[in-house]
Amino acid sequence: YTLSPSEHFTLDVKSSDENRKSLFLVLTRSLDRETIPVHRLVLTASDGGRPSLTGTMELVISVLDANDNAPQFNQSVYKVQLPESAAKGTLVARVNATDPDEGSNKEFSYSILSSIPIGNRELFTIDSKTGEIRLTGTLDFEDVRLHELQIEATDKGTPPLSGHCSVELEVLDVNDNAPEVWVTSLSVPVSEDASVGTVVALLSGASDADIGANAQLSYTLSPSEYFSLDHQGNNDQSESLGLILTKSLDRETIPVHRLVLTASDGGRPSLTGTMELVISVLDANDNAPQFNQSVYKVKVLEGSELGTLLVTLSATDPDEGINSDITY
């Protein structure tokens, strides 16, 4: 007896006598259904005559599937980006795995094993059949800039086998934070005789929780007739702003200046933060007393007694405090 060439099978012939032989087909090498699902062999029996005569039979060996293949993802790492303004239900990614087994051994389901940071698992959900991952919460770039999900695909074989991949979600910044000023209102006293160019106050720059252009700040002052801002213009959030006097003050004309400092970021659209500056002008003794008449003409009888009231003089001083106290 002879068997057609095969890497996986061989014949084992057992003989009790010349006329009776038992044949065994023996497996010599492990099978792989995914490589060769069917083996076709030819068994030949030859007699000892001259010439020899033969008989043949075909052996068709069908390899039954075993769950020896875990689901395999087409990518080990899926890298995706979403803006932090993405709405609930937004598709994050669609993972895809395949299993070369057959039947229930190739049926598998997807699940989210874990997330980094821990505790953000509830932000995402996955369809166990399609592998679609969607948002179930809201993203916040200022809170977490990178989410990593560990995904598992588990088949229904016995025992079940699993494949794994990860999804890295980079959250993109959206201009959702307005510049924040340290105080909303500030009172600053300034003497009215302060010279032009005097630094009236040093103000802390605003801060912005966004990044990039969304956090690049510029400043404006309104009204700007008497005061201006002195800063380097490098958009450094830690910079100090100098409030500079650009025009001489006059308390008697404008005793209080109310200014609005606006910080604007570079986002589109731009967001702003505002701060009120109340500049109280302190009095300087810059006004002399003024009589209500420059000349008083008085007539008096020559016989008037001592102590007779001749005239009442009156002067005023527009300054305040001791600067307006008048002695004659």
TrEMBL record:
The keyword Cell membrane applies. GO terms for biological process: homophilic cell adhesion via plasma membrane adhesion molecules. It comes from the Eukaryota. This is PCDA1 protein. Its main location: membrane. It is a single-pass type I membrane protein. One of its GO terms (molecular function) is calcium ion binding. Pfam families: Cadherin. InterPro entries: Cadherin-like_dom, Cadherin-like_sf, Cadherin_CS, Protocadherin/Cadherin-CA. The gene is Pcdha1_1. It is found in: Cell membrane. Residues 1-73, 74-181, 182-291, 292-328 form the Cadherin domain. Keywords: Calcium, Cell adhesion, Cell membrane, Glycoprotein, Membrane, Repeat, Signal, Transmembrane, Transmembrane helix. One of its GO terms (cellular component) is plasma membrane. The keyword Cell membrane applies.
